[in-house]
Amino acid sequence: MLVAPGLRLLPQSREMTGVAAREVNVLDHLQVGADDPGTAATVHPIWVPVWEEGGRSQVLNEPSPSGPLSEGTTMKRKQLSSIAASFVILGGLLLVAVPTRESFAESKKISGSGSATAVLSETKMLPGDDPSHVITFLRRLDTDKNDQFGDGQATIVNVDDAVAGTGPHRGYRIWTGTSGDQSFVAYEGRTTAVVKPSGPPEATFQGKWWYTGGTGKFQGITGGGTYRGALDAKGLTYQYEGDYEMKK
Fold first, then answer.
1. pTM of the predicted model over 0.70
2. β pairing state of 235-245 and 46-53
3. What end-to-end distance do the CA atoms of the chain give, in Å?
4. Which residue in 93, 229, 236, 245 could disulfide with 105, CB within 3.0 to 4.6 Å?
């Protein structure tokens, strides 16, 4: 057992438990250990600090300001108080900063299909670098049905940058449900032309989509997924799937 010079520990009966317990908390750098087999205590002993000097012994109920341990004890008390205050502050910050389980939105699956019903406007431009290079600006209406929100109508604004029918595309899609609430989607992908020996060329397309916002119950919606489709003699059709989260 490590003890400061001039300081020894004496076993004390539990009649002094209040005094000893208080001192042990203050001087907790001293070991509080098992029973001393050399003592004559009749009950389980506990350790209390005793200061010896000039043949005199004194139980240190409260360390004297002029005693050899007073400075260290005072510093230790301040350190303990500072550490305790830090833990209290940190605990409060964690309670504020860490979100609860209920604050997390639950991710859900979505899948659906759509088809073009009407072209509202279309503009084609030729950059001039290649006769088959065509940039097309198009606005159209689609019918849409998905497994989460039911039937709706989608307004599409699309830009194609294609050479001989093949190239990248991107655009925006506003879906409106029967309640009038809307979800906003951005997308980008690639169109690939399929040249046939006879008849007009066909095309397939695929890409990625993601929510950018919404109104009503769709306010704060996030998520995204993939889509694929085709343009043939029957018209333009597509399918999509992905995940979404609704703001709680």
1. no
2. unpaired
3. 59
4. 245
